[in-house]
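Slide 14.
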Amino acid sequence: MISDVTISALALGISSLLGSFIGFFFKRIPHKLNDIFLGFCAGMMLGAAVVCLILEGVELAGSTGWWQVTIGVICGVLLISCIDFLTPHLHHLSGIDEDEHHPDYTRSVNRVLLFVLAIAIHKFPEGMATGVTFDGHNVDNAWAVTISIALQNIPEGLVVVTPLLLIGVSRLRTVGVALAIAAIELSGVFVGYFLGTISSALLPALLGVAGGAMLYVLSDEMIPETHAHGFQKQATYALVAGVLTLLIIRQLTA
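Slide 15: predicted structure.
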Protein backbone atom coordinates (compact mmCIF):
# COMPACT_ATOMS: atom_id res chain seq x y z
CA MET A 1 0.00 0.00 0.00
CA ILE A 2 2.84 2.40 0.77
CA SER A 3 4.05 2.02 -2.81
CA ASP A 4 0.60 3.10 -4.04
CA VAL A 5 0.72 6.13 -1.75
CA THR A 6 4.19 7.02 -3.07
CA ILE A 7 3.00 6.78 -6.67
CA SER A 8 -0.05 8.91 -5.81
CA ALA A 9 2.10 11.57 -4.11
CA LEU A 10 4.52 11.68 -7.04
CA ALA A 11 1.62 11.94 -9.48
CA LEU A 12 0.27 14.99 -7.67
CA GLY A 13 3.69 16.62 -7.42
CA ILE A 14 4.58 15.97 -11.06
CA SER A 15 1.20 17.19 -12.34
CA SER A 16 1.65 20.44 -10.40
CA LEU A 17 5.15 20.88 -11.84
CA LEU A 18 3.84 20.09 -15.33
CA GLY A 19 1.37 22.97 -15.06
CA SER A 20 4.17 25.20 -13.79
CA PHE A 21 6.39 24.20 -16.73
CA ILE A 22 3.62 25.13 -19.19
CA GLY A 23 3.29 28.47 -17.41
CA PHE A 24 6.84 29.43 -18.40
CA PHE A 25 5.66 29.84 -22.00
CA PHE A 26 3.22 32.61 -21.03
CA LYS A 27 5.58 35.27 -19.72
CA ARG A 28 4.38 38.04 -22.01
CA ILE A 29 0.73 38.11 -23.11
CA PRO A 30 -1.65 41.03 -23.84
CA HIS A 31 -3.87 42.34 -21.01
CA LYS A 32 -6.98 40.97 -22.72
CA LEU A 33 -5.62 37.43 -22.94
CA ASN A 34 -4.17 37.73 -19.44
CA ASP A 35 -7.56 38.69 -17.98
CA ILE A 36 -9.30 35.89 -19.88
CA PHE A 37 -6.71 33.38 -18.71
CA LEU A 38 -6.87 34.53 -15.08
CA GLY A 39 -10.68 34.55 -15.28
CA PHE A 40 -10.64 30.93 -16.42
CA CYS A 41 -8.27 29.97 -13.63
CA ALA A 42 -10.41 31.90 -11.14
CA GLY A 43 -13.36 29.79 -12.26
CA MET A 44 -11.34 26.62 -11.76
CA MET A 45 -10.36 27.81 -8.30
CA LEU A 46 -13.95 28.79 -7.44
CA GLY A 47 -15.19 25.34 -8.43
CA ALA A 48 -12.36 23.68 -6.52
CA ALA A 49 -12.97 25.79 -3.39
CA VAL A 50 -16.67 24.91 -3.26
CA VAL A 51 -16.83 21.39 -4.72
CA CYS A 52 -13.44 19.89 -3.86
CA LEU A 53 -12.79 21.60 -0.53
CA ILE A 54 -15.88 22.92 1.27
CA LEU A 55 -18.45 20.36 0.07
CA GLU A 56 -15.89 17.58 0.44
CA GLY A 57 -15.35 18.69 4.03
CA VAL A 58 -19.09 18.73 4.71
CA GLU A 59 -19.41 15.20 3.30
CA LEU A 60 -16.53 13.95 5.44
CA ALA A 61 -17.91 15.62 8.57
CA GLY A 62 -21.39 14.15 8.19
CA SER A 63 -24.74 15.70 9.03
CA THR A 64 -23.70 16.59 12.59
CA GLY A 65 -20.23 17.92 11.82
CA TRP A 66 -21.01 20.69 9.32
CA TRP A 67 -20.03 23.27 11.95
CA GLN A 68 -16.39 22.13 11.69
CA VAL A 69 -16.28 23.16 8.05
CA THR A 70 -18.10 26.44 8.80
CA ILE A 71 -15.55 27.36 11.45
CA GLY A 72 -12.78 26.27 9.08
CA VAL A 73 -14.05 28.57 6.31
CA ILE A 74 -14.23 31.51 8.73
CA CYS A 75 -10.70 30.77 9.97
CA GLY A 76 -9.45 30.55 6.38
CA VAL A 77 -10.90 33.95 5.55
CA LEU A 78 -9.45 35.49 8.71
CA LEU A 79 -6.07 33.86 8.06
CA ILE A 80 -5.74 35.30 4.55
CA SER A 81 -7.12 38.63 5.74
CA CYS A 82 -4.28 38.79 8.27
CA ILE A 83 -1.72 37.65 5.71
CA ASP A 84 -3.02 40.43 3.45
CA PHE A 85 -1.45 42.92 5.86
CA LEU A 86 1.88 41.11 5.63
CA THR A 87 2.20 40.87 1.84
CA PRO A 88 3.76 44.35 1.47
CA HIS A 89 6.62 43.00 3.62
CA LEU A 90 7.11 39.93 1.41
CA HIS A 91 8.54 41.75 -1.60
CA HIS A 92 12.08 40.73 -0.69
CA LEU A 93 11.02 37.11 -1.26
CA SER A 94 9.99 37.94 -4.80
CA GLY A 95 13.22 39.80 -5.55
CA ILE A 96 11.29 42.94 -6.55
CA ASP A 97 12.16 46.37 -5.18
CA GLU A 98 8.79 48.04 -4.59
CA ASP A 99 10.40 51.50 -4.32
CA GLU A 100 11.30 51.36 -8.01
CA HIS A 101 7.71 50.84 -9.20
CA HIS A 102 4.41 52.72 -9.42
CA PRO A 103 1.93 52.15 -6.53
CA ASP A 104 -0.50 50.38 -8.91
CA TYR A 105 2.25 47.93 -9.81
CA THR A 106 3.00 47.35 -6.13
CA ARG A 107 -0.68 46.53 -5.51
CA SER A 108 -0.55 44.02 -8.38
CA VAL A 109 2.49 42.37 -6.77
CA ASN A 110 0.59 42.15 -3.46
CA ARG A 111 -2.35 40.48 -5.19
CA VAL A 112 -0.14 37.88 -6.86
CA LEU A 113 1.78 37.08 -3.67
CA LEU A 114 -1.46 36.69 -1.73
CA PHE A 115 -2.93 34.42 -4.38
CA VAL A 116 0.18 32.23 -4.46
CA LEU A 117 0.03 31.94 -0.65
CA ALA A 118 -3.59 30.83 -0.85
CA ILE A 119 -2.67 28.17 -3.42
CA ALA A 120 0.11 26.92 -1.14
CA ILE A 121 -2.20 26.84 1.90
CA HIS A 122 -4.80 24.70 0.19
CA LYS A 123 -2.27 22.21 -1.18
CA PHE A 124 -1.57 20.58 2.20
CA PRO A 125 -5.15 19.59 3.15
CA GLU A 126 -5.75 18.62 -0.48
CA GLY A 127 -2.79 16.23 -0.27
CA MET A 128 -4.01 14.93 3.10
CA ALA A 129 -7.45 14.26 1.63
CA THR A 130 -5.79 12.10 -1.02
CA GLY A 131 -3.59 10.22 1.46
CA VAL A 132 -6.52 9.40 3.76
CA THR A 133 -8.38 7.63 0.94
CA PHE A 134 -5.63 4.99 0.84
CA ASP A 135 -6.44 4.03 4.44
CA GLY A 136 -9.81 2.68 3.33
CA HIS A 137 -10.69 -0.56 1.57
CA ASN A 138 -11.74 1.03 -1.73
CA VAL A 139 -8.43 1.53 -3.53
CA ASP A 140 -10.22 2.33 -6.79
CA ASN A 141 -11.78 5.37 -5.09
CA ALA A 142 -8.34 6.44 -3.86
CA TRP A 143 -6.99 6.37 -7.41
CA ALA A 144 -10.04 8.28 -8.69
CA VAL A 145 -9.30 11.02 -6.15
CA THR A 146 -5.63 11.04 -7.19
CA ILE A 147 -6.48 11.37 -10.89
CA SER A 148 -9.02 14.12 -10.21
CA ILE A 149 -6.62 16.23 -8.16
CA ALA A 150 -3.73 15.56 -10.55
CA LEU A 151 -5.77 16.92 -13.47
CA GLN A 152 -6.78 19.88 -11.35
CA ASN A 153 -3.13 20.52 -10.44
CA ILE A 154 -2.11 21.29 -14.02
CA PRO A 155 -4.04 24.57 -14.37
CA GLU A 156 -3.26 25.37 -10.72
CA GLY A 157 0.46 25.02 -11.37
CA LEU A 158 0.09 27.19 -14.45
CA VAL A 159 -1.79 29.93 -12.60
CA VAL A 160 0.94 30.11 -9.95
CA VAL A 161 3.81 30.58 -12.39
CA THR A 162 2.27 32.91 -14.97
CA PRO A 163 1.34 35.81 -12.63
CA LEU A 164 4.74 35.62 -10.94
CA LEU A 165 6.51 35.95 -14.27
CA LEU A 166 4.21 38.77 -15.35
CA ILE A 167 5.09 40.89 -12.30
CA GLY A 168 8.79 40.38 -12.92
CA VAL A 169 9.80 37.59 -10.53
CA SER A 170 12.90 35.82 -11.84
CA ARG A 171 12.59 32.39 -13.40
CA LEU A 172 14.86 30.89 -10.74
CA ARG A 173 12.70 32.18 -7.88
CA THR A 174 9.56 31.09 -9.72
CA VAL A 175 10.95 27.57 -10.10
CA GLY A 176 11.63 27.56 -6.36
CA VAL A 177 8.03 28.57 -5.62
CA ALA A 178 6.68 25.86 -7.96
CA LEU A 179 8.87 23.19 -6.33
CA ALA A 180 7.86 24.30 -2.83
CA ILE A 181 4.14 24.16 -3.62
CA ALA A 182 4.48 20.71 -5.21
CA ALA A 183 6.43 19.53 -2.14
CA ILE A 184 3.71 20.82 0.21
CA GLU A 185 1.06 18.72 -1.50
CA LEU A 186 3.35 15.69 -1.78
CA SER A 187 4.07 15.79 1.95
CA GLY A 188 0.35 16.18 2.66
CA VAL A 189 -0.34 12.84 0.97
CA PHE A 190 2.07 11.00 3.29
CA VAL A 191 0.83 12.85 6.38
CA GLY A 192 -2.76 11.95 5.52
CA TYR A 193 -1.91 8.30 5.01
CA PHE A 194 0.23 7.82 8.12
CA LEU A 195 -2.06 9.73 10.48
CA GLY A 196 -5.05 7.79 9.24
CA THR A 197 -8.08 8.28 11.47
CA ILE A 198 -6.53 11.31 13.19
CA SER A 199 -6.23 13.21 9.93
CA SER A 200 -9.73 12.06 8.97
CA ALA A 201 -11.04 13.86 12.05
CA LEU A 202 -9.07 17.00 11.21
CA LEU A 203 -9.74 17.03 7.48
CA PRO A 204 -13.21 18.68 7.44
CA ALA A 205 -11.91 21.74 9.28
CA LEU A 206 -8.68 21.86 7.25
CA LEU A 207 -10.61 21.63 3.98
CA GLY A 208 -12.84 24.44 5.24
CA VAL A 209 -9.79 26.59 6.01
CA ALA A 210 -8.41 25.99 2.52
CA GLY A 211 -11.79 26.71 0.90
CA GLY A 212 -12.26 29.92 2.88
CA ALA A 213 -8.77 31.08 1.96
CA MET A 214 -9.46 30.51 -1.72
CA LEU A 215 -12.83 32.31 -1.60
CA TYR A 216 -11.26 35.35 0.07
CA VAL A 217 -8.49 35.66 -2.50
CA LEU A 218 -10.84 35.10 -5.44
CA SER A 219 -13.29 37.78 -4.33
CA ASP A 220 -10.86 40.31 -2.90
CA GLU A 221 -7.97 40.06 -5.33
CA MET A 222 -8.22 37.78 -8.34
CA ILE A 223 -11.65 38.66 -9.80
CA PRO A 224 -11.16 42.45 -9.32
CA GLU A 225 -7.80 42.14 -11.10
CA THR A 226 -9.45 40.53 -14.16
CA HIS A 227 -12.04 43.35 -14.24
CA ALA A 228 -9.58 46.24 -14.01
CA HIS A 229 -8.56 46.65 -17.66
CA GLY A 230 -11.86 46.87 -19.56
CA PHE A 231 -12.20 43.18 -20.40
CA GLN A 232 -14.58 42.21 -17.59
CA LYS A 233 -17.14 40.56 -19.91
CA GLN A 234 -14.56 38.25 -21.44
CA ALA A 235 -13.12 37.50 -18.00
CA THR A 236 -16.60 36.66 -16.68
CA TYR A 237 -17.29 34.25 -19.53
CA ALA A 238 -13.88 32.67 -18.93
CA LEU A 239 -14.67 32.31 -15.21
CA VAL A 240 -17.90 30.43 -16.01
CA ALA A 241 -15.95 28.23 -18.44
CA GLY A 242 -13.42 27.52 -15.69
CA VAL A 243 -16.11 26.43 -13.22
CA LEU A 244 -17.68 24.13 -15.84
CA THR A 245 -14.27 22.67 -16.72
CA LEU A 246 -13.62 21.83 -13.07
CA LEU A 247 -17.05 20.19 -12.77
CA ILE A 248 -16.42 18.13 -15.93
CA ILE A 249 -13.05 16.98 -14.61
CA ARG A 250 -14.65 15.93 -11.32
CA GLN A 251 -17.42 14.10 -13.12
CA LEU A 252 -15.07 12.24 -15.45
CA THR A 253 -12.93 11.07 -12.53
CA ALA A 254 -15.80 10.29 -10.12
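Speaker note: The radius of gyration is 18 Å.
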